[in-house]
Specification:
The structure is a homodimer of 336-residue chains.
Chain A (H helix, E strand, L loop, with lengths): L14 H15 L2 H4 L5 E5 L2 E10 L5 E2 L2 E2 H14 L4 E12 L4 H17 L3 E10 L7 E10 L15 E5 L5 H11 L15 H10 L5 E3 L5 H13 L2 E5 L7 H10 L13 E5 L3 H9 L8 E7 L6 E4 L5 E3 L13
Parallel strand pairs in A: 5-6, 10-13
Antiparallel strand pairs in A: 1-2, 2-7, 3-4, 5-7, 8-11, 8-12, 9-11, 10-12, 13-14
Chain lengths: 336, 336
């Protein structure tokens, strides 16, 4: 570790996070499950292939356009399971509450939890509540952990991308991060920007129905599309080429990013899925995605090349090519 | 709810916690799993009986005699699974870190996690790390969630106690709560008091091997032995009679409780297990417990009666009987 203390970017989902996991946590906790470095683990329960994952949510503010910390916590864990090709089944919910939190706020958050779990058909089966004295936690943190069943025929992993594959995304990027930031800073742009937070299990299920041979599913959350694609390129020993003009971004989000000096390719999404699959299945899967409410804006944004291995290349609108690196630093803290 | 804000005793594990769960969370999230109100849920995964549980840890201080927040988090989840008769298999680990936390502290905590998971043979399969800015979380909070397999022949539940059953415990009570409190307040008693934090899966496995007909397993954590027995009495519609002079307490803990004005029956344990089973199997199970390192102090402390239903009675050393109620108020905050 370069420093002797934990810094904000150790939680950014970018380079410092990866270093913390690989150089600090893995040597202490080393086992084959953690070494996979996926967002969720695949374990065996008497022969059943089961996905298991956890996430803590510390988003600030806890209410934002398009959701709240409760709906976000459910969506995030549902999506991590979905990215393994698993059918999400059961969820646990751990709450850490600040003394003095208004019940009205907790009510709204729990309604977000209830609605999100209903939409994604995941059952909340166990919970835990801790309360700490005022000033020792900021309002409300949530942990969700989930399990889901992976059908035997499905084998998706960040290490499965192959040259010749295409890269799909199900809609506009950067909505979540910009919605949080504008809410937190009290900024007002020409039109309201809403988080894309959504459960993706239905969409993924429709895609896998059309094409069980999907190679990679990945939700570009902290660190954004650029960081997620770097993880895939590195794990699969391939290059990913992204076409800048094909990456869908709404006008308000593009303007906001320009004003704020943020690259939308590094901004967090909470309802987006990068899908990498053999080119021959691309059209059929895109069609299935477009029939789903969360895939209406689906499009092909890139392809997988043999080299340079481990790199993500951006073909810019003016015809140049530049390397897109992993996020360094904490671009936006407490985004989820 | 009586108040309009969250108070410390909503996290105490006592009466206010139960009210929060039953009157606030259940109506919003209602499903048959949560309605069981056990420490962990029993779910089905393609026909396999699986226990699933979660707990967040906010203990203050994070280092204490007998363990740290890391070992405690693993033990707590291993024990919740064990109390369903499950064999603990897989664990997820969610960390919320305060910016500026020394790596040296994180290292010690993670060594606690690693050692505890090794001893209990549970595998940490997925993790998540969030960092929040200085002052927005107190050092380090941990969430653990776990799954385990329940053998088909085992059926333990807080609702299974029957008149004629006996109540066993595996050793001295109140060690954990008093160890935390003395460490936090900088108190020094005649001899050092250590937390009893320990993984109980090996002990429980040995007990169930001798007697698969065990009715109830419960770890008396927040709220202590008195609160756990009240939950059992209430869920099983029976009375539990406890013999005061049989409840094992070490001399230093007894003295500390007297000085601090605490009733040890309400103080948290993290390595204790209340076991309720048919009287005819009592001796055999006690013998098995005494052969295990975490059951050396095992003893019979009470029995189950038909009435008064839902009540816990304490037969005092002077021959009287008094009702032991559920914990009210937050006797000791941030004990786990």
């Amino acid at each position: 570790m370069h420093s002797e203390q934990i810094a904000l970017d150790h939680g950014s989902g970018g380079e410092a996070s990866a270093e913390l996991v690989e150089k600090f946590f893995l040597p202490i906790l080393d086992n084959p499950f953690l070494r996979e470095l996926d967002d969720s683990a695949v374990v065996s329960l008497n022969g059943e292939k089961v996905a298991m994952t956890t996430d803590s949510y510390v988003v600030d503010p806890i209410f934002f356009p398009g959701g709240n910390i409760g709906s976000l916590a459910v969506h995030g864990t549902v999506n991590d399971l979905s990215m393994q090709g698993a059918q999400p089944l059961y969820l646990t919910l751990g709450l850490i509450l600040e003394e003095g939190l208004p019940f009205e706020d907790l009510q709204k958050v729990m309604e977000g939890v209830a609605q999100a779990s209903k939409e994604s058909s995941i059952k909340i089966v166990a919970g835990d509540t801790k309360v700490v004295s005022k000033g020792h936690v900021d309002k409300l943190f949530i942990n969700t952990a989930g399990v889901g069943l992976i059908p035997p025929a499905i084998n998706v992993s960040a290490g499965n991308a192959r040259p010749g594959d295409v890269v799909l995304i199900n809609g506009n990027i950067a909505d979540h991060g910009i919605a949080i930031l504008t809410q937190r800073e009290g900024l007002h742009f020409q039109s309201s920007i809403r988080s894309d937070s959504a459960p993706l299990n239905g969409l993924v299920s429709a895609m896998l129905h059309v094409c069980p041979e999907v190679h990679v599913l990945r939700d570009p959350t902290r660190g954004g599309v650029a960081t997620a694609l770097n993880e895939i390129a590195s794990r699969s020993n391939v290059a990913v080429q992204l076409y800048e003009e094909r990456v869908p971004i709404s006008d308000p989000v593009r303007s906001a990013c320009e004003m704020l000096g943020l690259d939308p390719l590094y901004v967090a999404n909470e309802g987006k899925c990068l899908t990498i699959l053999p080119r021959k299945h691309g059209e059929a899967v895109l069609k299935a995605m477009k029939h789903h409410p969360y895939g209406a804006g689906a499009t092909m944004i890139g392809e997988v090349l043999e080299s340079p291995q481990g790199r993500v290349l951006l073909k810019t609108q003016v015809g140049g090519t530049r390397i897109l690196s992993t996020l360094t630093g904490a671009q936006l803290p407490r985004i989820c």
